[in-house]
């Protein structure tokens, strides 16, 4: 496909030791990160973790206290925002209400003194599939359409990096899902670096090639959506991306790549390759959808981990799956998502064995302060 933006070569976006302090409070803490050119990168984290501050430093709206920002072989740390080959799309669209859609998209080019804007504007409107609405005013557009126009208006400036600050936050769930797919399509088509800030793990997982999970101004873990989900490095990540059962365990030994631990007074196994700590107290994590329940111990496949003595305390039927909450004698609760395949649904009060394939568990460092999923 042709280069819709007609850009010059950019390069990787590199943040080096980026720190932002407000008085004695550190909002972004010694952040170093390389965002490869052309990737869809998500900064994911809870409110207040420093995502927006990081984005504002990249765009130049905020000066770092310490650190540098490089784009390709150019350092941009001290460049004014409008000198940087970077554009931002905000949650609130910020379209000009008195201009029609065509003129909104043309705005950046006109301001730079470009005379013949027609081809570029039409290309951009086609890219976001809204060419037929060129004569409308922003108020005559839906939220999703307005967000596409905001995107077209940013892309026409031929940035090397597009920053997206919770761009879908104002949309309802169904529209947000559609726009996630749409944004990913546009990013693939233009091949531009997108840096997307969100607190929504599903949104980050749907769109991003790489996710940086942020916590207290630092990167907790960096990786592809599948890596983060399958191999979370910390209990924070294990809970932030999806749900996890986190079970306090004590390592008993390791043989042939298999770690044996005890938990709830019973022996369980873990794949050593998926253990970040193999001595002392650890946390055994396992996703609810990797866990099953049975009323009879004999139904547990050979070699599987099994925890007995639990009781179903809650059952929710949600169509494709049934979710169980199983309480262990210690009071700790385990979450189980079972596909509905016509099996009997266990009622609250039923005593069950919770079991899973040992290769599906992961081991994390830590002993206490297990945050609830
Ligand atoms: P949200 O999703 O709520 O926007 P965020 O992860 O984007 O959260 P930031 O906006 O980057 O978080 O803010 C990080 C921290 O820095 C917050 O605790 C915030 O209160 C603080 N902060 C941000 N801007 C300022 C400022 N101008 N002065 C003082 N503190 C600030």
UniProtKB/TrEMBL annotation:
Annotated signal sequence range: none
UniProt keyword terms in alphabetical order: ATP-binding, Cell membrane, Membrane, Nucleotide-binding, Translocase, Transport
GO cellular component, one term: ATP-binding cassette (ABC) transporter complex
Protein's name in the database: Spermidine/putrescine import ATP-binding protein PotA
Domain ABC transporter: 13-241
Catalytic activity: ATP + H2O + polyamine-[polyamine-binding protein]Side 1 = ADP + phosphate + polyamineSide 2 + [polyamine-binding protein]Side 1
A Gene Ontology molecular function term of the record: ATP binding
Enzyme class: translocase
NCBIfam families membership: potA
Similarity comment: Belongs to the ABC transporter superfamily. Spermidine/putrescine importer (TC 3.A.1.11.1) family.
Self-association state and partner proteins as the record states: The complex is composed of two ATP-binding proteins (PotA), two transmembrane proteins (PotB and PotC) and a solute-binding protein (PotD).
The EC number(s) this enzyme carries: 7.6.2.11
Pfam families cross-referenced by the UniProt entry: ABC_tran, TOBE_2
Nucleotide-binding recorded as keyword: yes
Task performed by this protein: Part of the ABC transporter complex PotABCD involved in spermidine/putrescine import. Responsible for energy coupling to the transport system.
SUPFAM superfamilies in UniProt: MOP-like, P-loop containing nucleoside triphosphate hydrolases
């Amino acid at each position: 496909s042709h280069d819709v933006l007609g850009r010059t070569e950019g390069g990787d976006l590199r943040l080096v030791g980026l720190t932002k302090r407000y008085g004695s409070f550190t909002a972004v803490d010694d952040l170093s990160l390389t965002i490869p050119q052309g990737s869809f990168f998500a900064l994911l984290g809870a409110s207040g973790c420093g995502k927006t501050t990081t984005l504002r430093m990249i765009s130049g709206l905020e000066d770092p206290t310490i650190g540098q920002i490089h784009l390709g072989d150019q350092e941009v740390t001290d460049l004014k925002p409008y000198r940087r080959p970077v554009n931002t799309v905000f949650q609130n669209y910020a379209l000009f209400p008195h201009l029609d859609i065509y003129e909104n998209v043309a705005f950046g080019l006109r301001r730079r003194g470009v005379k013949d804007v027609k081809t570029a504007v039409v290309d951009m409107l086609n890219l976001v599939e809204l060419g037929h609405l060129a004569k409308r005013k922003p108020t005559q557009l839906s939220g999703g359409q307005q967000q596409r126009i905001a995107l077209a208006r940013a892309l026409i400036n031929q940035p090397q990096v597009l920053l997206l600050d919770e761009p879908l936050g104002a949309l309802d769930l169904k529209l947000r899902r559609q726009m996630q797919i749409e944004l990913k399509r546009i990013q693939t088509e233009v091949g531009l670096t997108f840096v997307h800030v969100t607190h929504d793990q599903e949104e980050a997982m749907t769109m991003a090639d790489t996710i940086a999970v942020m916590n207290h101004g630092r990167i907790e873990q960096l990786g592809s959506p599948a890596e983060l989900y399958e191999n979370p490095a910390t209990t924070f990540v294990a809970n932030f991306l999806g749900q996890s059962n986190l079970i306090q365990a004590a390592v008993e030994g390791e043989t042939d790549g298999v770690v044996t631990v005890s938990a709830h007074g019973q022996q369980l196994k873990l794949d050593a390759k998926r253990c970040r700590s193999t001595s002392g107290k650890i946390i055994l994590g396992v996703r609810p959808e990797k866990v099953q329940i049975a009323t009879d111990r004999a139904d547990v496949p050979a070699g599987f981990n099994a925890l007995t003595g639990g009781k179903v305390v809650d059952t929710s039927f949600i169509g494709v799956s049934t979710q169980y909450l199983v309480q262990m004698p210690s009071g700790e609760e385990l979450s189980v998502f079972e596909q509905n395949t016509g099996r009997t649904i266990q009622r609250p009060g039923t005593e069950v064995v919770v079991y899973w394939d040992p290769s599906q568990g992961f081991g994390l460092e830590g002993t206490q302060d297990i945050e609830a999923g």
